[in-house]
Design brief:
The chain has 126 residues and is an all-alpha fold. It has 4 helices and no strands.
Length: 126
């Protein structure tokens, strides 16, 4: 009997499930872009960078590593959020994900500040 009710809920809330999946995939694309930006900045710095400065080199490495870690964190949090929303849709309950959004916002601010510092160091060193 419980299985039949679950199938009915899935069909009844198909639009919400699809929206949840689209949101999940958008966050995965965001994580890929974050990792790509960090990788690009680091690889460009060491392949065509005209300025060699120890601080800029370290900051470039930190930027690359942080972007990889941030990408992993985004995917992990997004996966948890997706599963929680899926259960919430099945149970007919809604819980906003403000804690996840706040954490990701803080991490993105740190990432942007690292990028700004990187460019400021390049301007200062050059």
């Amino acid at each position: 009997m419980k299985k039949d009710q679950t199938e009915i809920n899935q069909i009844q809330y198909a639009q919400q499930h699809l929206a949840n999946e689209r949101t999940y995939l958008a966050w995965v694309r965001t994580a890929i872009a974050i990792v790509g930006v960090g990788f690009l900045a680091t690889s460009l710095h060491f392949t065509i960078g005209n300025i060699r400065n120890a601080w800029v080199d370290v900051l470039s490495i930190i930027l690359g590593v942080f972007s990889g870690i941030l990408g992993i964190i985004v995917i992990y949090i997004t996966n948890r959020n997706y599963k929680n929303k899926e259960q919430g849709i099945m149970n007919g309950k809604f819980q906003p994900s403000s804690a996840h959004i706040n954490l990701l916002s803080i991490l993105m601010i740190i990432f942007i500040l690292l990028i700004i510092n990187y460019f400021m160091f390049i301007l200062w060193a050059g």
